[in-house]
Amino acid sequence: MEEPMYIKIHNQIKRDIENHVYHVGSRIPAERQLAMKFGVSRMTLRQAIKTLEDEGILERRVGSGTYVANQKVQEKMSGIMSFTEITHANGQTPSSKLISFNIGKPSLSEKERLKLVDQEQVLRMERIRYADEVPICYEVVTIPYKLIKKMSKADISAHLYQTLEKNGYQIGRVTEHISAAVANENAARLLDAKKGEALITRLQVTELSTGDPFEYTRANYVADRFEFTFSK
């Protein structure tokens, strides 16, 4: 079955954006011009544009026109990559701000997720992750203290996975749970977002190659700045 014409137009405009015919933040040609270019009615053209808007690729600005939306950070859900690697892969500069870095007793959920025994301590750190200085994510990361007690604070907070590998550990499987949420007052303040703005919530448990869990992460991403792409 042949694809509908609006889907063909959608795919072509998307390719043009990927090939930098239309750059991020730039205005695309008016509907009338695009309809003439593709030889279709404006109604068909509008279907294609609306689909691209729904996908977050284009954004309509009242009284101004339609623009290529700001690029989101994409995490491809195949293999395990750190936020730093993901951001570099998207051509952006990563950075982070450490809010807290404390050693103490685990909560019940931390104890369960990390399969800890009685009396074990954990390192719990909170941080904001940035791409090109734009806040993307607020996360709380919990790690068994025994695993990282000889490693430096700077290495753990900035390059956890690389630091573990340098110390002879191999990263294994990751399990993630993705859900939707809205920003409360605290999340909005930390992420420079609006209260009630859409968030993506991610719970992640990462294991070593031995099968032992070493990282439990709870993260909130601003939905219009980040997206997950699943691939097999």
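(ticket continues) Second input and output from the same batch:
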Amino acid sequence: MAFTRLSVNVNAIAQLRNRRNLPWPSVTGLSAIALEAGAYGITVHPRPDERHIRRTDVYEIDAMLRRDWPGKEYNIEGYPTDDFLALCESVRPDQVTLVPDLPGQNTSDHGWDTVAHKDFLTDVVARIHGFGARVSIFVDADPKLVDAAKSTGAERIEIYTGPYGGSFEQTVRQMRLEEVVATAKAAFAAGIDVNIGHDLTLKNLPPLLYRVPQVAEASIGHAVIADALLYGLGETVRKYRTACGETL
């Protein structure tokens, strides 16, 4: 039975660690717990100021995955500066997710205009393919962005689900859900795979995946780490796997 694979974003763990000049909580140690509980992969988003994930974390997680979890997936996301691309090239993750973040942004809050930036993204995708990684382009929930994303050569889009996940009024939430569903269906019709991410929870994830069960991957960080305070990380990962349609 097909299900959506869960990639745990560990930036929030790194952010908590960075509040003190101490080595805990351990980003690699907790990543290992998530993987032991069945997470399909680990996602990191290294930013230039290293306020969350540090460059050293990127390498340490890579070493752990290669040593202990060779079947799991490593997804590195970020804005494609030369430094970011050089970091990815040195690690060679399974997937690079291109996000149009400005350096000072608190978190990702919009996707690429794939039409306006098609030439730029095409060059970046080709560079990433040169070191063997799959590419996902972070886009808003708008079907009009799909064809240009596919034309860059990227294998996937990641639909920014923040407006859906952050909607609490029923009419607005339903409207945002329909936007995500329409974008996913446009991608499937165009022959490009779909990831989803941002503000996804145990409550809002199942209704979305009920509509588009073909989604390949859900990248979830904030809610997983918040729920881990209640349930523990291992049990939380298992709950999210179930929410992603996996039979445990």
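Agent notes: The chain has a mean pLDDT of 96. Residues 109 and 215 are 21 Å apart (CA to CA). Closing as not reproducible unless the customer responds.
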